[in-house]
């Protein structure tokens, strides 16, 4: 990408960051690599089962979060597209803001069986607003970070309102846990990581899946036993989170 092209893309990202009504933008891999220091370890701020999150610094000094998904071939393009579509439609004060995405496939020379061959390398990335206070899990695992009761109430209320909004949009998060609740400067919670989320179509109130993905300890019993997905799946996870916030530590 030319310097002029990257400058215009950076300007577009800055605009989305500053304008909460703006739609997410398609971002080139080269730009996301540049603002994260080529995805350096020094910029890493989180790691999960589906990818690594990096701090991205824009020329203005503003910060964003860039999630680079692992190159897994069981994550199909249609799954990535579904997640992007879902994220683009989620706009609420208690959900993390989705700023942009990248979906590129490059051909790279790689050694194979004693010779170099051209191989497809897929890049799938998501860009979000940066949450400076980290995730809720940090405050439940560190005794020195005990939360005041007013703050606990604020966090519980915010998570409940965020889940209520998602369910109004017919979205089941499917992976609610303290690691996926981020906190802004004012300790306002934002629900994040919609990689496992499901949107129920039409008047459907349930779905069945053979893929029982999620986090043990937060997964509803009926989902573990039969793969049944309902809005109650999230409510079970929410109840565990509320209990842990009230206790001040993880179970």
The first-level CATH class of the largest domain is given as Alpha Beta
Globular, elongated, flat, extended or rod-shaped: what is the shape? globular
DSSP summary: helix tally: 7
In CATH, what is the homologous superfamily of the largest domain? Phosphorylase Kinase, domain 1
**Might you state the CATH topology name of the largest domain?**
Phosphorylase Kinase, domain 1
- Residue windows where pLDDT falls under 50 for at least 5 positions: none
CATH architecture of the largest domain: 2-Layer Sandwich
- Tell me how many strands there are: 12
Please give a structural write-up:
There is one protein chain. With 251 residues, the protein is of the alpha+beta class. It folds into two domains: 3-129, Phosphorylase Kinase, domain 1; 136-247, Transferase(Phosphotransferase) domain 1 (Transferase(Phosphotransferase), domain 1), CATH 1.10.510.10. It has seven helices and twelve strands. It has helices at 3-18, 29-35, 77-88, 136-141, 149-168, 221-226, 231-247; strands at 25-26, 44-47, 51-57, 63-69, 98-112, 115-129, 171-172, 181-183, 189-191, 198-199, 206-208, 228-230. Helix 5 (149-168) packs antiparallel against helix 7 (231-247). It is globular and about 55 Å long. ATP binds at residue 67. Pfam families: Pkinase. This is Protein kinase domain-containing protein.
Summary?
With 251 residues, the chain is an alpha+beta fold.
Features:
two-stranded antiparallel ribbon, Protein_kinase_ATP_BS, alpha+beta, 2 domains, ATP binding, Protein kinase domain-containing protein, nucleotide-binding, 6-stranded mixed sheet, Ser-Thr/Tyr_kinase_cat_dom
């Amino acid at each position: 990408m030319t310097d002029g092209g990257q400058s215009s893309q950076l300007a577009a990202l800055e605009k989305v960051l500053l304008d909460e009504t703006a739609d997410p933008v398609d971002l080139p891999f080269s730009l996301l690599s540049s603002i994260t220091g080529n995805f350096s370890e020094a910029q890493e701020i989180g790691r999960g089962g589906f990818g690594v999150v990096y701090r991205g610094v824009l020329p203005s000094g503003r910060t964003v979060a860039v999630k680079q998904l692992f190159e897994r071939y069981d994550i199909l393009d249609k799954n990535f597209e579904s997640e992007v579509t879902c994220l683009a439609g989620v706009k609420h004060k208690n959900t993390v803001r989705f700023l942009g995405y990248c979906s590129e496939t490059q051909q790279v020379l790689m050694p194979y069986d004693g010779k170099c061959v051209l191989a497809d390398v897929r890049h799938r990335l998501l860009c979000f607003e940066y949450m400076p206070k980290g995730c809720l899990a940090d405050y439940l695992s560190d005794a020195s970070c005990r939360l005041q009761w007013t703050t606990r109430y604020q966090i519980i209320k915010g998570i409940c309102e965020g889940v209520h909004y998602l369910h109004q949009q017919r979205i089941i998060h499917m992976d609610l846990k303290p690691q996926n609740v981020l906190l802004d400067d004012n300790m306002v919670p934002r629900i994040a990581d919609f990689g496992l989320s499901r949107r129920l179509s039409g008047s459907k109130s349930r779905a069945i899946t053979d893929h029982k993905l999620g986090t043990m300890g937060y997964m509803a019993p009926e989902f573990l036993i039969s793969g049944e997905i309902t809005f109650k799946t999230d409510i079970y996870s929410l109840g565990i989170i509320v209990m842990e916030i009230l206790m001040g530590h993880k179970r």
